[in-house]
UniProtKB/TrEMBL annotation:
Stored Pfam families: BPD_transp_1
PROSITE patterns in UniProt: ABC_TM1
PANTHER family documented for this protein: ABC TRANSPORTER PERMEASE PROTEIN MG189-RELATED, ABC TRANSPORTER PERMEASE PROTEIN MG189-RELATED-RELATED
GO BP terms in the entry: transmembrane transport
Principal location: membrane
CDD domains documented for this protein: TM_PBP2
Record keywords: Cell membrane, Membrane, Transmembrane, Transmembrane helix, Transport
GO cellular component: plasma membrane
Sequence intervals crossing the membrane: 12-33, 70-91, 103-125, 137-156, 177-202, 238-257
Organism: Phytohabitans rumicis
UniProt record similarity statement: Belongs to the binding-protein-dependent transport system permease family.
Top-level taxon: Bacteria
Name assigned to this protein: Sugar ABC transporter permease
Amino acid sequence: MRTLAFVGRHAIAIALSVMFLCPIVFLALTSFMTDDQALTASLWPASWHPGNYTEVFARTPLPRYLLNTIVYAVCATCFMLLASVPAAYALAKLRWRGRTGVFVAIICMMMLPPQVTTVPLYLMWANYGLTGTIWPLVLPMLLGDAFSIFLLRQFLLTIPDEYLDAARVDGCGEWRTLLRVVLPMAKPGIAAAAMFQFFYAWNDYYGPLLYTSENESNWTLSIGLASFRSLHHVEWNLISAATLLTMVPIVVVFFFAQKAFVQGVTLTGVKG
């Protein structure tokens, strides 16, 4: 009876969990199939082929793609935080003329499709000789990210001004107030913004395809996965195995940071 009562109370959550797990289970089963069986009506492997995972390493320089992806995700996240945290602090806690207009401009930048600026930005990086590298993906983060600034501003607004006023009365300047008072209290919001940026960079396909496709040594995992697709044939079993391997690091990161991530998202009111 207790089991039935538990299922009854959590029926919707169980149904959603099964719905989200089904694609992962399907991916895992496909990764052990032969190329001929993959994506057929048979969902269970006729014979198990764990060698598909070693084949992935033999066919592609997966460790190099992983290293490039880590460099891209970590550098982009660190640069974004360096620029976005002070910007969010200025918008949330400082009083200056034009603050509302700048915030509206940042909101408008969030709605701007990246394809609009693709051609002029590509020409600019080509003139600097940086196409074929990951730097065109990382360096713009030194100017901040519109979504991250918005997210951090919303979180900083929840910090009472009395703490900042007390620090100023004790002689702290704005930078010292930010570093000593605001940052320790804003850890959940910073963690949420960092994880959003890290996940975006890890899964980004458009940016690496645009800037690094001409130089395979700088490919990321998302571009490396596409290398299993030829003109007339797609090796779904190897793609499934490689996809599961690329998911492992990001799942581990989320497992250790999920508490701060959920707290930050909850307090800032940002969902999805």
